Amino acid sequence: MASLERAELLINQGKIDLAIEQLKGVLLEDPDNAFALTYLALCKLRLDQPDDAIITAKMALTSNPEIDFALYVISAAHLKLENYTKSENAIKRAIEANPNQADYYGLQAQLKLISKDFKEAIVWAEKGLTIDAEHLFCRNMLSTAQLKSGDKEASFQTIHKALEMDPENPLSHANYGWAEIEKGSHKKALGHFKEALKYDPHDAYARSGMLEALKAKYIVYRMFLRYYFFMANLKSGTQWAILIGIVVINRVIGSGAESIGEYGFLLNYVSYALIFFMVSTWVIEPVFNFFMRLNTYSKYLLTAQESKTALLVGACFAIFVGSLVGW
Predict the structure, then answer these.
(1) Which of 57, 206, 238, 258 would give a disulfide with 70, using CB separation of 3.0 to 4.6 Å?
(2) Nearest to 314 by CA among 296, 289, 290
(3) 215 vs 58, residue with greater confidence
(4) What is the mean pLDDT of the chain?
(5) Closest CA to 307 of 223, 57, 315
(6) For the residues of 8-28, what is the DSSP string, one character each?
(7) In this predicted model, which residue has the larger pLDDT, 36 or 264?
(8) What's the rounded Cα separation, in Å, for the pair 270 and 40?
(9) Positive or negative, the Cα torsion across 159, 163, 166, 172?
(10) Segment 81-106, tens digit of pLDDT
(11) What's the Cα-to-Cα distance from 260 to each of 57, 107, 244, 255, 263, rounded to whole Å?
(12) What is d(CA 75, CA 248) in angstroms, rounded to the nearest whole number?
């Protein structure tokens, strides 16, 4: 006989298809069962069907407006769709309805990380940990927020604690790996990504980290990563200010080169270097993906889109070299 308890157990075990069968059985007997609809929405979210998850969770709220977990599912689905404002509105409503769920605070912390409000992310993650001191997602969000805000020592202490609580948690290992990459220790990062993928072979977060750690073996890419992390930790307004500043400096150099006569070519070289620097930040990732594509093993870490782009970059480079030789 189908039951909500059985469905919940199957969801926790990751057996989503079997859980859906259980939930369909419950809904056959009671089509307006709000709890069954909420669990079904969660299943759709786990199956990477965020639009369907939102529709189903809203049906649950129509049946019973007091189910705060349905709001959490809606928020998580909007997050997956990158509708960050809608996601934050939903999680705020969930927290107001039930302020005693650590999951809700963890999701709010994640949203603050995305908006680069790192201090607020720390506040929300710590609130979640006051409710459940062993909540791994909140602890991972706290570690990332601490790292991004510049407190590396506290960040590593936090993630160490997470791994002590659950040495087989793939998110903790992946987070540790990304922290090591940002610190410049790509070899240590590889070990943590390997562990993360051992426990969850389909973890895209760990897979992309593994790829970045492999590319970081090249010194040029390590230099790019330093710049990338520096820019990524800044808010969009500051990022634009830096890029506009580079353009302005380039123009000033161009004017100065003409005014100082025969030695102006030296300033032109500085200008060329700045232009190369700006352009390289746009193309360096697909270029190194092309090198990864040629590798017997690391090519399997590339997504279909990354692999396609890498091959196109390789073709463009071949045409460039051929044209240069022909010229």
Answers:
(1) 57
(2) 290
(3) 58
(4) 84
(5) 315
(6) HHHHHTT-HHHHHHHHHHHHH
(7) 36
(8) 59
(9) positive
(10) 999 999 999 999 999 999 999 999 99
(11) 68, 57, 25, 9, 6
(12) 41
Q: Return the pLDDT at 1.
A: 46
> 80-117: buried (b, 16+ CB within 10 Å) or exposed (e) per residue?
beebeebbbebbebbbebeeebbbbbbbbbbbbbeebb
Neighbour tally for 51: CB within 10 Å: 11
Question: Which residues are within 8 A (CB) of 71 and not within 5 positions of it... i.e. 6 or more apart?
Answer: 57, 61, 90, 91, 93, 94, 97
Output b/e per residue, 130-168; b: 16+ Cβ within 10 A: eebeebbbbbbbbbbbbbbbebeebbbebbebbbeeeee
The letter for the amino acid at 265 is F
pLDDT, tens only, 24-33: 998 998 999 9
CA distance 122 to 139: 10
Q: Cα(310)–Cα(302) distance, rounded to whole angstroms?
A: 9
- Residue that has been written with the tokens 């040029």 in this structure: 220
Instruction: Please name the residue that has the structure tokens 């769709």.
Output: 81
Radius of gyration of the chain (CA): 24
| φ, ψ for residue 177, nearest 5 deg | -60, -45
CA 252 – CA 234 distance, rounded (Å): 25
